[in-house]
Amino acid sequence: QIRYSIPEELTRGAFVGNIAKDLGTDVTKLAAANLQVLSDSDSQYFSVNVNTGVIMVSERIDREQICGQNPRCFLHLKLAIENPVEFYRIEVEILDINDNPPEFPSDEVSLRIYELASLGARFPIQPAQDPDVGTNTLQTYHLSANDNFNLNVKARTDGGKFPELVLERALDREFRAFHHLVLTAEDGGSPPQSSKIRITIQVLDANDNHPVFDRPSYGARLVENSPLGTLVVKLNATDVDEGPNGDIRYSLSSHNSAALRQIFAIDEQTGEIRVQGNLDFEEATVYEIEVEAKDMGSPTMEEHCSVVVEITDVNDNAPEVILTSFSSSLSEDALPGTVVAVIHVRDRDSGEQGKVLCHVSPDLPFQLRKDYEHQYSLLTSTRLDRENVAYYNVTVSASDLGNPPLSRHTILPITLTDVNDNAPQFEQASYEVLVAENNPVGSVLVTVSAADPDSEQNSRLSYSILRAGGTDPGLDPTRYLSIHPTSGQVTAKFPFDYEQTTYLQFHVEVSDSGSPALRNRTLVHVFIVDQNDNAPRVHFPRAGEDSATQFRISPSIVPPALITKVVAIDADSGRNAWLSYHLVEATDLGLFSVALRSGEVRITRALQETDASAHELLVVVRDAGEPPLSTAVTLVVLVEEKGPEALQGSEARAADGGGLPTITLYLIVSLVLISTV
Question: Where does the record place the Cadherin domain (predicted)?
């Protein structure tokens, strides 16, 4: 490695060094070895004459551009030689020359300094810049002669030097308003180079008088809810200074709360304080506003005063109703005087405007009792009945004593809860039912219905049959009847037989599901309606199913002699038991007749020799039912010379038969009498 040193700014072609001599090589060998110069930088600052081996400057070299403020600056080259290949490193040090004077950023600078600036005050000046290094760079400053300022140069660790003006003697603007100084920067080159900057200092008037209010404090009175923009007070302050020092601006002091700043605003020019927010006596009765007056001097001077604003109350708040305790459900059996709600009332206004009276409608079963100031109790005043009124909207009205008064209405919804205080009631006190006998099993005879004005569990009803007296005191209706426990439908377990039971009476009991359960009863009368389900039965004459009864008459019998009487009964009743007798068949239909109602069999004409000696009669007994039922009986009439009289024959035959039972005789007599009637 070979090193050379050259100053910057050499002319093109300037000698740097002889590479052949320094390498100890013949110049002819360098030419034959194809010598090449390689630079590490983008610019080719150097070249080599292969004929002489001399390194020369090929371009302008500016050390400040290449290396800046570095104290040492180097450029590096590489020499390449062929046959054999060899590389040589050449280092060229660029030495600084004093080719740059110190330079200030501008030719002139202005300073404004107040006349009351304290002695020793320092005023920095923009430093001059010198790109040279070493002794060629900036070394010192010089200040022109003056009476008030000295120069102080601050040196930094990096070598930088900063000039400062130091006030050594007080300024007097009235004596000299402007000071003109010259600051010179000089480097250490040979010869030295320098530059100058003109400094103009303006002495500013000192703001030595503060504003003064015409009063130390102000007072005002406003009613609450004053309109926005209402004037509170107009402030007045003066400043004996002139210009900006006497120009005053008003503002609210920072000591005021943010809430107060939302309510009041001040005009910075006129000093008028106006309302810009809502004034509420209930939030604040007095506002104390801190105001400051500042002049426009620099530095500014200020003065403070306070404004006391008293707020007058108006009746702008309606009473408030607060439920301390309230139960929206109330049992209907609650006694009069039961507390339903405890109510607290308040009014944010003051004086008479804050006194509150409460009342409820006298039409409701409730009343208010004043416990003490601002508290009322809502009580029941009478007995309650949910079945009459199940729900109440009780309006509590609260009014203050303002003029005009303000009021507030609060609705308390009260629901009455049910108690089992109503027994079920049947729609009818008793029921009468007509039931045709032979009814189907399970058919509905009657539906009893009851209602309970209670609600929910207390109104759920169940029905049951109780044993009651009827035509048969020992008859138990539950053997024949059943009732659905919820629908009240009474059904038959068995078909009814009118011939056995014509009337049935029983009680139906209904009970609710309350605790304790309440009950009620109704009486049901069941009348069995007869149906024509029994055919007539012949009680006389008695005969077997396939036999006929014989009667004997004399050939000389005189018409209309009674031969016999057919006696029949029907177990049915009414028209179903209304019997009629008919001669359907006979050996000679013109010889005999049968009475329609009595059943008497008589001969209608005298017997003749040509008549048969034996006559067979078919008598049908028919009831009046729909459809009619009938029974037939066959009578054989024998004509004999020696036969007894017809009626006597009948009696004899009856006697032979052992006689009729007593009850049968009574029935026969009754039927005869009925038929006759």
Answer: 5-104, 105-213, 214-321, 322-426, 427-538, 545-663
